[in-house]
Amino acid sequence: MSEIKTLIVDEVYNGIRIDKYLTEILSDKSRSFIKRYFDEERICLNDRIVKPSAKVYTNDVITYTDVEIIETTISKQDIPLDIVYEDSDVVVVNKPSGMVVHPAFGHYEGTLVNALMYHCKDLSSINGVIRAGIVHRIDKDTSGLLVVCKNDASHESISEQLKAKTTTRKYYALVSGVIEHEFGKINAPIGRNPKNRQQQAVVEDGKPSITHFKVIERLNDATLIECVLETGRTHQIRVHLAYIGHPVLGDPIYGLRKHISPNGQYLHAKTLGFIHPTTKEYMEFDSELPKDFVEKLESLR
Predict the structure, then answer these.
(1) Is 139 a residue of the active site?
(2) 63: Cβ–Cβ under 8 A, 6 or more apart, which residues?
(3) What is the pLDDT of residues 13-65, one digit of tens each?
(4) From the candidates 139, 152, 251, 292, which is the catalytic residue?
(5) Which of 1, 131, 156, 252 could form a disulfide with 127 if both were Cys (CB 3.0 to 4.6 A apart)?
């Protein structure tokens, strides 16, 4: 299980980078494992999330959330997958709400990776067996399109496109309240919620985060909108929409209690576009809204 641990920097390590400090102090952890801690924002220096390049000084306090190391053998499971497209390099999957993308504490089976291990002979190995093929994620209770990579070359190509923000990612969200203006841009930094480390929030020292949206349809005290991500922070759309007073309906963490749904939040990764790693041609895919999303939409019309 997860556990918060604390380290006090000794004067012998004064002025070195925090990633080098942790590599020496946490000798039982590999460099890639420590990198994962930074990627997942599990490392805090004096109560602030920092990058691997941050310097540490005598008596600085480092806290980190340690996690159980999952077995390196991930079971292959014959779980039905909605494959939108597949070739020798990539697989585009329409993930259902309720499915976790990769194994983690409490979710060792029934994940998208478990299903992919059964379906595909090969998957990229860059992120290890636990995240085989996974180059980007969507939340457990968010449905929609993901591209999965079958080899490392494809993984590197898609990863670079995500970093360069040249991919297309459009989400449909059903939010509380009627949004009067047609378009909006939410530019607010996101980081760990200082009052609840399990959540994200708009915080002054957070990472730059930008979400664009446009109104698709106004409903009975609700609005269907399309969101386009300019950045890709954890829970970004959910946090940003709650921040402007229009939380996603059904969201159990950032939404209103009266709107909590057993199906999770009404958020769907509808459109995904990228340049194919081998052919170099732009490909774009679109997916239908899930049945429960459509039913909710109808009930609000």
Answers:
(1) yes
(2) 4, 5, 6, 7, 43, 44, 47
(3) 899 999 999 988 887 677 777 887 888 788 999 989 899 999 999 999 999 87
(4) 139
(5) 131
